[in-house]
Amino acid sequence: MLFERIFSRTFAPFASLPGPRPLFPIGNLLNFFGKFDRPWEVMARYGELYGGMCAMWLFNQPAIVLNDARLIGEVLCSRTQDFYKDEPCGALIPVLTRSSPNINNGEEWTRTRRQSPMTQPWIVEWRERQMPALRNVLRKWAERMASVTETEALPFQKEVQRVTFDCFSVATVGSELTESCYSDFLLMASLGSKRMLTPMRPSAELNTQGQETRKRFLRGLRERYDNACSKSDPAATDLLSMALRNHTQLPADELSAEMGNVFYGGCFSVPSTLVSTLYLLSQNPEEFRKLKAAIRQLGDDCDLMTLLECRPLDYALREGMRLLPAVPLFGRRVLTTAATELGGCQLPPNTNIWICNWLLQRSAPQWDRPLNFLPDRWSGGVAEANPLGSDYFFPEGRGPRICLGAEYSIFYMKLVLATLLSRWDIECGQGQAYDAGQGFFFGVRMPYGLRAKLCRRTDD
Fold this sequence. Notes:
single chain, 460 residues, alpha+beta, CATH 1.10.630.10, 5-stranded mixed β-sheet, 3-stranded antiparallel β-sheet, 18 helices, 49% helix, 11% strand
């Protein structure tokens, strides 16, 4: 093969691995043609064709694709010291700043994660105390949506994304941020997304517009920090105020920036999961009916534990996350300083590794009728045997680097579904294929094309 001869030195360490045949000079790039917005589907297909570990090539750059639960567990859980997180760190450092554990490694990752407000013991109290304010935002939004969708369904992802930004604003800094702040956030996220998808290593800094936007966004958050310090309100329930009251170790700029990182961490993945789950429910009316009945038994203002322990709600959300995970790909690299063995193959330093949950979360025999939306599959001890971050269910990652906000995102999504379905009926994606208008933005699978309508329950 011409590719093997010309790139013989690079190819040799991977020669024993199965995988698609690379073509000179583009490697396996043709496999992704028409799939650049859904690369996880290609990598899941590799798992079906070549097994749990294979090699692929983008031009002359090798990458390992893992679809094997045991090997993924080694990389993400039991042998984390042999690997580091590379993607999308370089792309996102100028967007998130070094304040975020998500883009750090080694000692800096340990410090930022340990000091993050999301890992503190008082975080459960914060979630519970947010419920009245968040319900208020969601109900106002739902009333408006019911009015504007009375005659025509609207693209739902961006609408849910907007109300999620407002809810996260209330939860993090105590009140809704301005429209200009939301525009700055979207611009920064767009720049970050483009940097993540570029085939070349991105520059170390943003362009001039990006730098000015970042300064403006961070300045607004720092103003909220200064205001919280000056007021020192003992009754304030937002994340920033509670972090200050509990004597956070993070310096002022890092803490205020970390409030902004909450938006980047959830304002795309959370709406994607909510819209996807509502779409699946709309396609399965009997399952939707059962969920609505369970939610209406909770009452309008149930407490945190009642919300979290509602099994039909928990099972429907789990099933949506299993079947249509918002983040279907995770990246790691072998350490730059040493080769390492994985799956019987000696991988050179800095080898790129892609980890796909798409196939494992839809695989038989682990899951009966894996492509069907069956919330009840999680009953009878299945949910306990397959917790978030386990071998065949890791929509938010696995191991010590599992999403920092995983518990908050689960709480928030349950609160959204319970709040909306207690008073409104929702149709999402009626007559549409799920893939309509799908996109890949900021590392998240985005169902942009799905349209939805809300209407007030007629039995109120």
